[in-house]
Amino acid sequence: MFLAVSKSFQLQQPLLFITQIETPRNDAEVGFFLKGNGKGNFNAITVLESGFFTPHDAKYMKRIKFGETEAVLVANNNYIQLFSIKP
C-alpha cells in the first residue's frame, strides 16, 4: 500500500501479510516514511526518527484533516493507528 501524501513525504505499508492460515507472513515490513526534498527525491527515515510504525496487517491508509490538524489513519481488521503530520 502506498500513500503519496505530498512532494515533501510519502508513507508506505506493504499488503502481503497473511494469505492463508497455513502460510506464514510474506513480508517483514512495518511501514516506512520517505522524506522528500520537493524535487522528486526521497530519503528513507528511520522508525525511531519518524515514529511511523505499523506492525499490523494494514488494510487501509487515508490522509485526513480535522480543523488545522492533518493526520494519516492506518487501519486493519483489529487496530486503528493515527499519526499526526507535522509541517
Structural description of this entry:
The protein has about 90 residues and is mainly beta. It has one domain. Helices cover about 5% and strands about 40% of the residues. The chain is built from one helix and seven strands, in the order E-E-E-E-H-E-E-E. It has one helix at about 45-50; strands at about 1-5, 10, 30-35, 40-45, 60-65, 70-75, 80-85. The protein has a four-stranded antiparallel sheet with strand order 1-2-3-4. The chain has a three-stranded antiparallel sheet with strand order 5-6-7, with no helix packed on it. A hairpin with a 2-residue loop joins strand 5 and strand 6 (about 70-75). The longest helix has 4 residues, at about 45-50. It is globular, with a radius of gyration of 14 Å.
Q: Which properties best describe this structure?
A:
7 strands, 1 helix, single chain, 87 residues, 5% helix, four-stranded antiparallel beta sheet, three-stranded antiparallel beta sheet, mainly beta, globular
In short:
By secondary structure, the protein is mainly beta. It contains one helix and seven strands.
SSE blueprint:
Elements: E1 2-4, E2 9-12, E3 32-36, E4 42-45, H1 47-50, E5 60-66, E6 69-75, E7 80-84
Antiparallel strand pairs: 1-2, 2-3, 3-4, 5-6, 6-7
